[in-house]
Hints:
- The protein is of the alpha+beta class.
- It has three domains: 4-63, CATH 2.40.50.140; 66-133, 5' to 3' exonuclease, C-terminal subdomain (DNA polymerase, domain 1, Orthogonal Bundle), CATH 1.10.150; 149-205, Helicase, Ruva Protein, domain 3 (Orthogonal Bundle).
- The protein is built from eleven helices and five strands, in the order βββαββαααααααααα.
- The chain has helices at residues 32-36, 66-75, 83-92, 95-104, 107-111, 118-128, 133-148, 155-165, 170-184, 186-191, 194-205; strands at residues 4-12, 16-21, 24-29, 44-53, 58-63.
Amino acid sequence: MIASLTGKVQYIASDRCVINVNGVGYEVFLSTEGLSRLPEKDENIFLHIHTNVREDAIVLFGFGERVEKEMFLTLKTVSGIGPKLALAILSGMQVDSLSQAIVAGDIKGLTAISGVGKKTAERLCVELKDKVGDFQSAASQTATSTIGISGGSTASGDALSALVNLGYPDIAAREALASVKKQLGDEIFTEMKVEELIREGLRTLA
């Protein structure tokens, strides 16, 4: 099974993109949010992938963040929700908001998502209420990490630029530095020199 792809954006459509990996084009379906975060054509990209195998086709679904993929897989465990509806749900709400709506039993908010009727919304709340609590904090941590590591003139920004210049996709480099930040803590991370951040980032990417 394909679990991730690293390559260049070859083509972007309304609901999918094609990733060129060493000359092979992989068609990947994404949520609206995922599509909006794609880089320009011919730029590097890293995506987490879920491979859905059917009798007549093998379909790839892509996610920029691991927490999105985990929520997608969790949504698919609900009766009546297949991969396309799960992706549509993620297009209608971001992971943290979706988690909050399910925990709160917000049927009205959930039915506002295209393709989600009242019965489906009720099943989401009943079957996932005790399973999605961790997604709220995970999504918040991901957002914080992404915001905290920019391409500016800070040490982390310079380290990010260096990793990208070494050939690593932007999102993979960001995730590596976010992992370093989480492991060492904010105080130590902010005091580290550029070369130290690059070294730790490369260790995480290895």
